[in-house]
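Incident log, support desk, overnight shift.

02:14 A customer reports that sequence design results differ from what the structure should imply. Their input is reproduced verbatim below. On-call engineer (initials T.W.) acknowledged and began investigating.
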């Protein structure tokens, strides 16, 4: 563990430690996994235009998300069933996020409940919501999250059905028998059982509401005063509809490339969404963030912050709470270094002029 120098190195350790079925569940994407690779590759095609001689002796990484001050624009995305990675699961992740002064998003399909995560101590936490067919259950879940002190709802909108994750089908993926989806415990929502397919895909097709639409985003605002982040937006059209529906923010996400394959990388889609949002609501990004340079690129393209998913479960598998702390620290250090080397002292100094993308028109040098 002492020799780990970057976020990606945690994955090999996780692969070694975890049973194949569990590693594959966390690591894989949909179908050909083109988008899974592209989420990373697209970052590598964005280059920097660093500015020099800027006095970067003091660098401020702090930011504000939905009115909450956090230490850096790097937050934790919702990932399901974290106790499959480590026995402390979401408890460890919550403590690591709190220690780093940042936000954790708890998955609906967590192996620890909203109340249990709240019991780990202070921290700013969001709750990711899947809308199930029984709206009473949805209302109950949202209200429990609110009572437990969660500060926002991240509504996942890209999963009317589960993407085709072939590793899970081959492995007949199911949750280990000693674990339960804690937020649904005691509710009559069926079980995540072994099937001749992916157990999760079968569970989702039985429970998740495929009729979910923009009216439901408005309905959610009638049952809670918490801000709603719409997670899973990739187009300008849906950005505008999200704003009309009263969303407090947007998370540009392709679900870690686990839903529809051959959608663009999130860093590619970000530009379109940011332009359509016109600064009316904040836009965040998840998918493929593995370096501090990636964080900077997302902010330069207009994101207000990023969320990390797989690095959390892999570091959790590798070393529990300390692993997650280390991932957050590495990303923070790399991001601070990138800011210094690009001549930025605060997040507001990071601009579109600091990066060049494939879709930029050729630059004409200013006449001196």
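02:41 Re-run completed on a clean worker. Output:
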């Amino acid at each position: 563990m002492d020799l780990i120098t970057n976020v990606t190195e945690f994955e090999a350790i996780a692969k070694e430690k975890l049973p194949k079925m569990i590693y594959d569940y966390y690591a894989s994407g949909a179908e050909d996994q083109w988008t899974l690779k592209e989420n990373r590759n697209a970052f590598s095609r964005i280059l920097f235009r660093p500015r020099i001689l800027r006095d970067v002796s003091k660098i401020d990484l702090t930011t504000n998300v939905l009115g909450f001050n956090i230490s850096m624009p790097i937050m934790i995305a919702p990932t399901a069933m974290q106790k499959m990675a480590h026995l402390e699961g979401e408890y460890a992740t919550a403590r690591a996020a709190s220690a780093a002064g940042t936000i954790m998003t708890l998955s609906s399909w967590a192996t620890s409940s909203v109340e249990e995560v709240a019991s780990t101590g202070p921290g700013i936490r969001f709750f990711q919501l899947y809308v199930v067919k029984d709206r009473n259950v949805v209302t109950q879940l949202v209200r429990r999250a609110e009572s437990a002190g969660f500060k926002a709802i991240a509504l996942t909108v890209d999963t009317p059905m589960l993407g085709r994750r072939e590793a899970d089908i081959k492995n007949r993926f199911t949750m280990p028998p000693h674990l339960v989806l804690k937020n649904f415990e005691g509710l009559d929502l069926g079980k995540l059982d072994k099937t001749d397919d992916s157990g999760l895909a079968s569970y989702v097709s039985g429970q998740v509401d495929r009729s979910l639409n923009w009216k439901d985003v408005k309905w959610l605002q009638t049952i809670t005063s918490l801000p709603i982040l719409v997670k899973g937006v990739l187009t300008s059209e849906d950005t505008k509809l999200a704003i009309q529906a009263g969303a407090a923010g947007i998370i540009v996400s392709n679900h870690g490339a686990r839903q529809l394959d051959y959608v663009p990388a999130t860093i590619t889609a970000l530009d379109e969404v940011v332009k359509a949002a016109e600064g009316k609501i904040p836009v965040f990004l998840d998918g493929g963030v593995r370096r501090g340079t990636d964080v900077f690129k997302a902010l330069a393209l207009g994101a207000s912050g990023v969320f990390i998913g797989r690095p959390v479960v892999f570091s959790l598998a590798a070393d529990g709470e300390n692993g997650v702390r280390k991932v957050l620290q590495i990303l923070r250090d790399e991001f601070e270094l990138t800011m210094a080397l690009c001549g930025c002292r605060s997040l507001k100094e990071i601009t579109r002029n600091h990066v060049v993308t494939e879709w930029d028109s050729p630059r004409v040098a200013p006449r001196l």
